[in-house]
C-alpha cells in the first residue's frame, strides 16, 4: 500500500456494484437488471425549472441549509405529517450526503450502530470511516424488522439504530406495528433513531409509515434522487431535532458546502409533480416479475422500492450471478449487501422488454447449476 494512504481506507472495499457495472461495459446488449435508479427520465417540468434557474443566474453557492423556498415547502409538508414541537430540515448533497453528515454528527469512535442484514452497501462503510462499529442483525429469511432481535443486539455502547424501509436490497417494507415497536424501544433506551426513507414514494401496498410518527427524536433522511429520477442532481434532505440539524449544518459548511443550487430549484418544482403514474407502473412491474419467478425461486414479496432479493438455487449467490452474466443477464450478488452468500438482487426499474428477457433467463436457470 502507498505510504500516504490513510488506514481508515483499508477498513472497507470498493462497492461490488461498481464491479458489476464494469462487467456490463464488456457485454453486447446485456439484460441489465442491476441498476438502482428509475428507468424514466427527470420530469420535464423539473428540467425546465433547473434550466430557468441556470439562465436566471442562480448558479452560485446557496445557503448551506438550502434555498429558502425549498426548505419552507419541505418544512410545511413535514409539519403536516409530524407536528413535533422541535423539528427542522435542511437540504443535503443527496441522501448519501445526509447519511454521512448524520453519522459524523452522532457517532463517536467505538459507538455501535445497529441495522438489518441485508443492508444498503454504504452503511458499514460510512460507519467504519467515522470509527463506528457496525452491528448487523440477521433478518433472514423474511427480512422483517423484528424488535426482539434489535433489542437483543443493544449493548452499553449502542448509539444508533439505522432503519431503511422500503429497503434496499430486499424491497421489504416494515409494518406500522414493527416501526412503532422499534421507535418506542429507541426512545426507552435513549438511542438515536435514523430512518433512511429514500424509497418512501415507492410504496405499493397500503400507506407509507415512518418511525418519526412514534418517536419525535427520529432523524429522517429522504430526497428526490429515486422518486424523480434525479440521481445525478444530488438533492436530499434531512429533518429532525433542531440541535442535531444545526450540528449537521456545521459539518456541511466544511464538507459539501451546499447542494447544487440549480438542482434545488428543480427539486422545488418536483414537489408539485404527480408521480402516481410512475408508482402504479412500478407496482405493475413488481407484480409481473414476482408472479413470474415466485413459483421457482424463494422470494420475499417486496412492498416498496424497486428491488427483489431471491434466494439462489445453488449454494453461492455470487457463483449464480457469474452464471447469469455468462448468459447476458446483469444482476447483483447478495453478498455485497450481506454477510451471507445465498441471494441475489434484481432491480425491476427496467423496461418491460428487459424484464421479460431477464425473467426468461432466470426461469431457465431455476433448476440450479447450468
Automatic annotation (TrEMBL):
Residues 29-360 form the Aminotransferase class I/classII large domain. It comes from the Bacteria. Its cofactor is pyridoxal 5'-phosphate. Pfam families: Aminotran_1_2. Keywords: Aminotransferase, Pyridoxal phosphate, Transferase. The keyword Signal does not apply. One of its GO terms (molecular function) is transaminase activity. Its EC number is 2.6.1.-. Gene3D superfamilies: Type I PLP-dependent aspartate aminotransferase-like (Major domain) (3.40.640.10). InterPro entries: Aminotransferase_I/II_large, AspAT/PAT-like, NHTrfase_class1_PyrdxlP-BS, PyrdxlP-dep_Trfase, PyrdxlP-dep_Trfase_major. Belongs to the class-I pyridoxal-phosphate-dependent aminotransferase family. This is Aminotransferase.
Amino acid at each position: 500500500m502507498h505510504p500516504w494512504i490513510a488506514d481508515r481506507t483499508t477498513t472497507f472495499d470498493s462497492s461490488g456494484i461498481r464491479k458489476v457495472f464494469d462487467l456490463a461495459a464488456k457485454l453486447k446488449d446485456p439484460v441489465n437488471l442491476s441498476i438502482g435508479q428509475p428507468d424514466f427520465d427527470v420530469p420535464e417540468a423539473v428540467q425546465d425549472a433547473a434550466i430557468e434557474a441556470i439562465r436566471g443566474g442562480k448558479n452560485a453557492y446557496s445557503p448551506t441549509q438550502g434555498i429558502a423556498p425549498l426548505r419552507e415547502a419541505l418544512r410545511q409538508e413535514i409539519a403536516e405529517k409530524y407536528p413535533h414541537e422541535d423539528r427542522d430540515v435542511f437540504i443535503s448533497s443527496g441522501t448519501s450526503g445526509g447519511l454521512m453528515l448524520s453519522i459524523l454528527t452522532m457517532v463517536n469512535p467505538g459507538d455501535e450502530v445497529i441495522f438489518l442484514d441485508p443492508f444498503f452497501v454504504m452503511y458499514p462503510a460510512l460507519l467504519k470511516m467515522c470509527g463506528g462499529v457496525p452491528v448487523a442483525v440477521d433478518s433472514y429469511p423474511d427480512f422483517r424488522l423484528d424488535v426482539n432481535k434489535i433489542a437483543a443486539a443493544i449493548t452499553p455502547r449502542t448509539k444508533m439504530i439505522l432503519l431503511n424501509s422500503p429497503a434496499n436490497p430486499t424491497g421489504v417494507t416494515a409494518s406500522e406495528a414493527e416501526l412503532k415497536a422499534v421507535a418506542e424501544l429507541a426512545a426507552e433506551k435513549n438511542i438515536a433513531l435514523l430512518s433512511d426513507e429514500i424509497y418512501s414514494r415507492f410504496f405499493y401496498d397500503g400507506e407509507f409509515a415512518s418511525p418519526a410518527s412514534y418517536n419525535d427524536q427520529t432523524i429522517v433522511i429522504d430526497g428526490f434522487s429515486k422518486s424523480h429520477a434525479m440521481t445525478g442532481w444530488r438533492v436530499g434532505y434531512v429533518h429532525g431535532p433542531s440541535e442535531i440539524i444545526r450540528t449537521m449544518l456545521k459539518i456541511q459548511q466544511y464538507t459539501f458546502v451546499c447542494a447544487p443550487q440549480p438542482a434545488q430549484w428543480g427539486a422545488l418544482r418536483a414537489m408539485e409533480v404527480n408521480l402516481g403514474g410512475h408508482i402504479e407502473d412500478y407496482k405493475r412491474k413488481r407484480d409481473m416479475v414476482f408472479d413470474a419467478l415466485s413459483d421457482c425461486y424463494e422470494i420475499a414479496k417486496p412492498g416498496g422500492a424497486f428491488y427483489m432479493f431471491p434466494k439462489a438455487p445453488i449454494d453461492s449467490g455470487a457463483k449464480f450471478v457469474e452464471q447469469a452474466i455468462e448468459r447476458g443477464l446483469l444482476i447483483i450478488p447478495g453478498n455485497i449487501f450481506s454477510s451471507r452468500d445465498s441471494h441475489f438482487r434484481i432491480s425491476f426499474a427496467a423496461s418491460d422488454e428487459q424484464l421479460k428477457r431477464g425473467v426468461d433467463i432466470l426461469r431457465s436457470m431455476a433448476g440450479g447449476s447450468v
